[in-house]
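Most newcomers find our protein records easier to grasp once they have seen one. A learned vocabulary of local backbone shapes supplies the integers on the structure line. An example says more than a description, so a record of this kind follows:
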Amino acid sequence: MSNGPARSQSTTSIPITTVKMRFGQNYHRNFVPEWSEHYVDCNLLKKHAKLGNIADIYEYLDNAVPALEAFYQHEINTDSFQQEDLDKLQWFGRVNVDAIERIITKLKRNGHAGSPDPSRFAFWKNSRQMKFYNQQNGNGLQDGILPNKPRTANPLQVAIRYQDDERVLALVQDSKNLRYLSARGENALHVTAQLGRLDYTNLLLKALAKSGLDHDIPDISRGWTPLFFAAVDGHLDIVQLLLEAGSNQHQKDHFGWTAKEYAVFKGHLAVAGLFETTDTDGLTGGPEQSPIGPSVYAPEHCREGEQIIIATLGSSRKDRVVTEVDLSYCSSVYAPGTNQDVASFYLTISAAGNKSQLRRKVQLPILDDQINDPFIFTISSDVAAQLIFHVYRATPEGNVLLGSGTALLEGNSHQFGTGRQSLIREQTVPILDKETMSVAGTVTFTFLIAKPYIHDLQGPQGFSTPEEWKTALTPVSSPPLLIGHRGTGQNLIANKHLQIGENTVGSFLSAATLGASFVEFDVQVTRDLQAVCFHDFSLSESGTDVPVHDLTLDQFLHASKIQSPHGNPLSMLGKPCSHDEGNNARPRSRSLGEQFEAGAIQIRDRMKHTVDFKLKGFKPNTRGEFIQDSFATLKDILTQLPEEIGLDIEIKYPRLHEAVDAGVTPVAIELNTFVDVALDTIRQHNKKGSKRKIVLSSFTPEICILLSLKQKAYPVFFITNAGKIPMTDMEVRAASVQVAVRFARRWNLTGIVFACEALLLSPRLVGYVKKKGGLVCATYGELNNQAEVVRKQVAAGVDIIVADRVRLVADTLAVLN
């Protein structure tokens, strides 16, 4: 689509905030692979600066700056140019100059002398006068001969990045190519380890061995060997090959990390499992000393009369590959020959009715992951939630509007019914060309609308300050707090000991007796907006796959009552619990016995056609396998459990994969309503003046965000698998330690509950979470039922352990006290 002649257009007076470009290590993959060795990694240099590694910065710049200068001078000629390459070169120049200037400014501000002078790159400032010189035979690839003058990267490295198999096979025979190190100290094996080509890696390892060259050398910028690059990107087969070839898995980089720790940090637990279990010189240093960026601004509270729009470009799911900004002008991903003057396009995002009239500006193309960089707009409650997207092109005459699009965030809510919303929070809006009104592309984003909680829960309950909460949850001189998982444990057939039904009052009382300080349980909301204690997505006890949020409270409780054998007298079965206000009577537990065997068979027969029962072959808290007890509501728990028993209330909002697995429509109760019902129940039935300790937690990131914005009475924890396999929930923010820490800090959460496998593989990451992230560190998982695993976590500094075998873990902790 032609953009037409450039026309000056005055920009609006609405303030624009620019989303700062980050310089991630994967930049070269998305944009200019043939020039990657000349790319200046700003994030890396900032990390060195924070750690005081000034000598490493100088060494990096001493290598990179002269190489860049020679490269640019050689590539540019005033006689002729190719527009496609010029656009790309302009962008690349801007990225590098910005990075160098930022670092040099930072060094000089801190009183460090001897920094390279950025003025030597002034010729890049007037980019429109540059011309690109297309040197004859300048690619340097013919016959494996290196170019005589500084040009792009080494020909073998270029061939690898473009995956040119024929040239790779030819060039790898020349030992000069194998010996060549880029300005960052990377050889061809570093490149192929990043790329993930197993065949190239195998070929290079054989060639290096034949030439007597070391394959395990660290680069200059990070101190990374090829093993680090493969581990960071999760290339399991390449990591295995490098380890078999003798790569040093105990090598530490400039920041004190091992390759295994990076694999865990990034969520590649299968890769980390290939490494030996070793002591990395104790549990200090490395991760806990590494720099971590400041938390980005997040609203403290969603006030009455307001609503907050939180939107992120792209998808939040790992199984969804989408282009955030897909335009005929300029896409999120650079494609040679299709993008015109790529450095001049940008996208603005604003919200109708935004009180601050703020617009966010995003330079195109987008180079980095956007999931933890949301756009936040506060608007009035009486304004329809809308996001407005504009695409501009910067010209010498001014900024020219090319196209626009508007997303009506709640426009289709009536399709799902009152108080309902889709579990799919991703939306795509078309961008219409200003001149032709035809579709010029799309913008895909994920959004959440936060609405205020009108009742007062803005002060800590049971403690005077939030800091006292954190201190109570992270005792310095005693072992970790013990939380009973669903009471005395998740009901599993594999367990050889007799279990009380999970998520029941009887199980919670038993857990406290056995030594748990807190009990953890799951809270869901029924169709008639009542908070109940239940884990599974669907109520299989009803004989169907109906979700809990599609049932009324009476239907939910009836499913509990009908688990008893038909025809038995009420005196044997126990009276049903009354949920009338003021009546706290409990039924007797329905003990397992031979006389109830026929009833147990009836129960299993009723559930045999449900998805959940087919997958597992049993149902928690049912007669015949466990000591079944009545289903409980959140009100039951708050009113019947002694005050000294702390509560870890997991707000279990339905997740997309659960609806897909059950084969039901992915629609549930609206998020704000779901959270408000739980908060209302806690506020109404947690006795006034109570000193009961309550923490709130959730696997769903949006629930954590809402809990943080709606209340300050109770600490909020994000629960994450952190890359644990199999990953049923494809949520990006639950995929690694790294992204979980960023998310928790971004939204002012108190802590994170990790699947324990991640921290067992890399115990020093506990220090990163606590000391660098400033977060409470908790773990869950079946391995937490092993005494040795508990001892390892205590040594690593874990604050909270959520476990099933409460007595075993309590005894283990008592010995360590």
